[in-house]
Amino acid sequence: MATAAAHKVQGITELLEMVLYELPPIDILVYQRVCQRWKDIITHGEKFQQALFFKPATNGTLKPRKERTFRELASSVEATWADASKPQRIFLNPMLAELIDAVKNGRDKKWTSQNASWRRMLLTRPSSDETCVMATDLDFLQGYDQGVMNGLLTLPTFYNQFPSINTSTPELDSKNATLQGTAVALYEVGAAFGALACFFLGDRFGRKWTTSGGAAVVLIGVILQTTSFQLAQLIVARIVTGLGVGSFTANIPTWVGESSDAHQRGGLIMIEGSAAIFGVMFVGWLEFGFYFIRQNEVAWRFPIAFQAILPIIVMIMVPMLEESPRWLVSKDRHQEAAQVLSKLEDAPADSPAVTSRLQSIRASIELDGQGHSSHPFARTPNRHLNRTLIAIAVNILAQMSGVNVITFYSNTIFQRDLGYSPVLSRIITSCMQTWQFLMATLAVFLIDRFGRRKLLITGAFLMCVANAGLTGLRSHADNATAAGCSLIFYFLALAAFPIGLFLIPFMYSSEIAPLRIRSQVTAMSGFSNWMFNFLVAEVTPVAFESIQWKYYLVYVCTNLVSVVTFYLFLPETMDRTLEDVDAFFLGSRNMLQPVKIAKSMPAGVAGEWDLREKVAEEDEKVEKS
């Protein structure tokens, strides 16, 4: 009888519309894929489509955003029921109440990763708009400062101020090339140790104040760079700036990842990557403009000084931001964590959603604590050693893709090796950075559709192809046609890197690490990333002087190693809570099993069942397979 009544209720279109009007947009997107009856109502209703996708009505008008609400639509439907006999029976009908509860309670189970889309990222609740703005600002700063030296190295007023790093003509000896590589690359050394500092500071001071301290260090470094008159001061200033920027790369992905929903995390962090590459692009065009006043010191001092505004903005914003709820739980500040989670979930602090998420985080920390060691290289049941090695390896391999050969030295390569004019070299470099920014923006929409694993593998494979193409074409250095064709592979490399290898390694390191050692793991992975960044920047000028085009063969080999490593050892973390990722490793017995478990384990297990039971189940599955 109850079944018959349920079918009868589902046959009343107006009643189902009222149920749907009560739901948030993400629920509606789910249930149009789950129930054909509801899909028909949603897809054929003009008002529904207008409210859901913010489409203009047929007359071309669009109401203000605040007025585009489901409550307004629901009230119009309720008005049509006002004249019905005994309308209170409709609203008090227990079958209707049961139907509404079933819709709301079933949302998480129906929201599967296969249906990921741009709508899902944009319509879900943001983790924290202010945190994302701050993170975007810092990543813009990272990209800006990393790209600022590229256009200055061939600027007359710059190398006249610092003649010992002038390599503008072939007559200058290799000592200048070595010193230039060192001057540029010591920024990466500073960044490496800035990231490593988070090993000690990240868990002690939290995500907020570690970020604020890094911004203050960057501001000091920028002031020192701008006022440099000797090479020694410039080098020290670059190291100081790198210290602050390096702390951002280790701390910010962790902060954003710990403060965002599993379905949003990838897209939000990739937006930061897009901002970083926008910084590289922006400084490229800025330096191109200042090139035309190249006889004035302003041409190189202003581009360096301009970035000072960014850390100032961050230091103003940080006190107003929320701390990471997972860090708060790790410090037994559960009440504060519940308040932060209530804002993220848009629900009261004592609501089931907040309570469940808080319990999941606490359970994960307790399980990790049973390993009896908080050392990142310890052999614990939670596989600290395995996860630390993965985080470090993915960052090293990303930097060994060869992209920094292009990013740091493109102007030098185009002018000295390919024979382009200074103006044309700068135009091509700026166009490549614009292209790289567009590809980074594309990655925002790809990351939560295809996942981290597929993009990492694809990025490494395409970088291998690009370096192979450059090996062949650059071996004919005197051929103008070959030189022109080599630009195709430069552009291919600057598409592959931002899509798969730029910010995903930083993000993946924070996702793969257990909370107990997350700051240490992200610090070491950031240190590895920057140190190999330094290695490439230091070696490249000398390598081009000695082995020339054969230098690209090195990166063909390293990218092949990356493809194999990513395929065998990296489990997919897309749409997984950070507690789910813990379950991958708790249930594995060797370095290959987390990939298999990630493919078979349903999403959200840490939040719906006891994690210990789920791990035992996955252990049994792996044994049988």
TrEMBL record:
The keyword Transmembrane applies. Keywords: Membrane, Transmembrane, Transmembrane helix, Transport. The keyword Membrane applies. SUPFAM superfamilies: F-box domain (SSF81383), MFS general substrate transporter (SSF103473). Residues 131-574 form the Major facilitator superfamily (MFS) profile domain. It comes from the Eukaryota. GO terms for molecular function: carbohydrate:proton symporter activity. It is a multi-pass membrane protein. PROSITE patterns: MFS, SUGAR_TRANSPORT_1. It is found in: Membrane. One of its GO terms (cellular component) is membrane. InterPro entries: F-box-like_dom_sf, F-box_dom, MFS_dom, MFS_sugar_transport-like, MFS_Sugar_Transporters, MFS_trans_sf, Sugar/inositol_transpt, Sugar_transporter_CS. The chain crosses the membrane at residues 184-202, 235-256, 268-293, 299-321, 389-407, 427-448, 455-475, 487-508, 549-570. Belongs to the major facilitator superfamily. Sugar transporter (TC 2.A.1.1) family. This is MFS-type transporter oryC. It comes from Passalora fulva. The lineage of its organism: Eukaryota, Fungi, Dikarya, Ascomycota, Pezizomycotina.
